Amino acid sequence: MAEKKGTILTGHRPTGPRHIGHLVGTLEQWAKMQDDYDCYFLIADLHVLTTDYSNTDRIQKNITDVMTDWLAADLDPARATFVRQSALFEHAQLSTLFGMLTTVSRLERMPTYKELIQELKLKPSAGTLTYPVLQSADILVYKADTVPVGEDQLPHIELTREIARRFNNTYGETFPEPEGLLSKSARLPGVDNRTMHASYGNTIQLMDSPEETTKKVMKMYTDPNRIHADDPGTVEGNPVFEYHDVFNPNKDEVDDFKARYREGKIGDVEVKKRLAEALNEYLKKHRERREELATDPKKVIKVLDDGTDSARPLVQATLKEVQEKMGLQ
Ligand code: TRP
Question: Which residue's CA is the closest to the ligand 1 atom numbered 15?
Fold first, then answer.
């Protein structure tokens, strides 16, 4: 087998089924990297509890939904390893040890933490504060050197690098300083032009039917100043056109729509109808695969549990090395 470029660890919190923003920005990128890197894809179920420890009814269902979307998006157990965070105690154990190397004030300065308490008015638990320490353990327990993430996660990668450096300086060279890898495609807005987020109810889910998808597209936010189809419209920052740019493979058609939209020579309805068609075409393969996988959820979960078992020797070896170096063995 050809020499791999390195080791990737990345993952999602299992908060529910994935949406098109996940597929186009993230999952497609991950799928492409499977041949070039040793890939570990993490279901970060412990991290779910950092913001809400009481609503646990849906965790297992959400894990199944995320795994189903991942496999449908061509993340492939023959080429990558899937891991259930809570089932490998080494993640939590390494997080405890890394916690010793991290000051509380450093964690209180994390922008993600500040945002959680300011914007969501969340009363933080100790688990909320140490979220990024657990994430550092997730990455370094595999000695991963490459971490594909969204921009909001970069401060967590920076902390991971600091922890790796501090550990290496104190106890001897052990961990790589991992690099964050940003996805190339821009962030796709939600159908209401806010950030796409399940809690805003503005996503197009990968499990939505073609009819549901069309309905959402037809109601999509567009140029709010355009009342009549013959008013000149704005294309820039208009999510309908941002989506066309991403999902409509017919670039000439998109250019023609934009030109006519600016001149007030095409209605929103026509532009949206074509977008719905293009989007449904784009989602076709994912939907077919998803539907088939969803007939056997046990098989989907077995992929996760088999992956977790196969990762165990590696994380055990890292933890043993860490404990020896820290004078615990
Ligand atoms: N914090 C990440 C998110 O919310 C999820 C995550 C947990 C993760 N552990 C990770 C991502 C390790 C990359 C590497 O999206």
Answer: 12
Centre of ligand 1 to C-alpha 211, Å, is 32
Cα–Cα distance for residue pair 25/298, rounded to 1 Å: 28
Do the beta carbons of residue 144 and residue 80 sit within 8 Å?
A: no
pLDDT of residue 308: 98
What is the CA(34)–ligand 1 centre distance, in A? Answer: 18
Could you tell me the pLDDT band of residue 183, with boundaries at 50, 70 and 90?
Answer: confident
Asked if residue 2 has pLDDT above 70, the reply is no
**Per-residue model confidence as pLDDT tens digits over 250-286:** 999 999 999 999 999 999 999 999 999 999 999 999 9
Q: Which is nearest to 134 in space by CA: 219, 195, 44, 205?
A: 44
Ligand 1 contacts CB of residue 138 (under 6 A): yes
Summarize pLDDT for 195-226 with one digit per residue, the tens. 898 889 999 999 999 999 999 999 999 999 99
Give the other-Cβ count within 10 Å of 278's Cβ: 20
> Which among 48, 156, 182, 199 is the best mutation to test ligand 1's pocket, defined by most ligand atoms within 8 Å of the CB?
156
pLDDT (mean) for 275-301: 97
pLDDT of residue 130 exceeding 90, the answer is: yes
Atom 8 of ligand 1: nearest residue by CA position: 11
Compute CA 191 distance to the chain's CA centroid, rounded to the nearest angstrom: 19
Tracing tokens 């795994």 back to the chain, one arrives at: 67
Contact at 8 Å (CB) between 304 and 63? yes
Q: Is the shortest distance between the CB of 9 and ligand 1 below 6 Å?
A: yes
Does any ligand 1 atom lie closer than 6 A to the CB of residue 13?
yes
Which H or E run contains 149? strand 146-149
